[in-house]
From TrEMBL:
SMART domains in alphabetical order: HTH_ICLR
Limits of the HTH iclR-type domain: 6-68
A Pfam family this chain is assigned to: HTH_IclR
Taxonomic lineage from the root: Bacteria, Pseudomonadati, Pseudomonadota, Gammaproteobacteria, Oceanospirillales
Name of the protein in question: HTH-type transcriptional repressor AllR
Gene3D superfamilies membership: 3.30.450.40, Winged helix-like DNA-binding domain superfamily/Winged helix DNA-binding domain (1.10.10.10)
Top-rank taxon, per record: Bacteria
Record domain IclR-ED: where: 69-252
GO MF, one annotated term: DNA-binding transcription factor activity
Organism of derivation: Pistricoccus aurantiacus
């Protein structure tokens, strides 16, 4: 590999890293300035990365965000057999300890994906298979992903969402949702109080990657007839312990 090729590759990698760190707040010009890359070079490299599906523009057309290919690579890290086995073991221990269904979730654009889950043995439970896609605005994980975004990115995403009323408890106005997100941002814990499925409550805490970005969420849900939300919130310290265990796995 020539020095020129090596330099181009390193710049492309650096640009992708900055796009991930920027979380939808950086323009092409700002990225070039951050990395001390000339404007023509930055635009050329970003154009190539965009063409390959590694990055893409947000709804405004100005800011750059990870593309589908880069996201698949990130999800692939979680799917690594040794990493997945270790994280699943933590998830299983948590489920056995709390006696409820525990979920590992990730965000894909406007949706939450159930990446993995350990089901409870209770006869009354909500069954959602791994791979299920759920809305952001009325799930505990979805609201946590929204709450931990930079304000500009969060506002843009909320503006693009259809705040469908899944139950009478769903937050269906941007103002009500934003008020809830501010509280979640402060507390770093999110709830779903029968907002997605009537009769079901859920709690979620964040899982950070080595750069301290929210990579995934750890969530517990249960029928409120068995676990009122107040009772479920008592499990947050245990959930945080499990989230830290998962973060250590990702650091290895």
């Amino acid at each position: 590999m020539s020095l020129s090729t090596n330099s181009t590759l390193l710049r492309a990698i650096a640009l992708m890293e900055e796009v991930i760190k920027g979380e939808g707040t950086l323009t092409a010009a700002e990225l070039g300035k951050r990395l001390d890359i000339t404007k023509p070079t930055a635009h050329r490299l970003l154009g190539q990365l965009e063409q390959e599906g590694l990055i893409r523009r947000d709804l405004s057309g100005r800011h750059l965000i990870p593309g589908p290919r880069l996201k698949r690579m990130a999800f692939g890290a979680l799917s690594n057999p040794s990493v997945n086995a270790s994280i699943r073991a933590v998830l299983k221990r948590l489920s056995e300890r709390v006696g409820e269904t525990c979920n590992l979730t990730v965000r894909d654009e406007h949706e939450v994906i159930y990446f993995d889950r350990i089901e409870t043995n209770w006869p009354v439970r909500v069954q959602l298979a791994p791979g299920s896609r759920l809305p952001l605005h009325c799930t505990s994980s979805g609201k946590l992903f929204l709450a931990t975004m930079p304000p500009k990115q969060r506002q843009g995403l909320i503006d693009s969402l259809t705040l469908a009323p899944y139950t009478p408890h769903t937050l269906v106005t941007p103002e009500a949702l934003e008020e809830s997100l501010k509280h979640i941002e402060r507390e770093r814990v999110s709830t779903d109080n029968e907002e997605f499925i009537e009769g079901m409550v859920a709690v979620a805490v964040p899982i950070h990657d080595p750069s301290n970005r929210v990579l995934a969420c750890l969530a517990i849900h249960a029928p409120c007839m068995r676990q009122p939300l107040e009772k479920l919130l008592e499990l947050v310290p245990i959930m945080r312990e499990s989230a830290r265990e998962m973060e250590k796995v990702l650091e290895e």
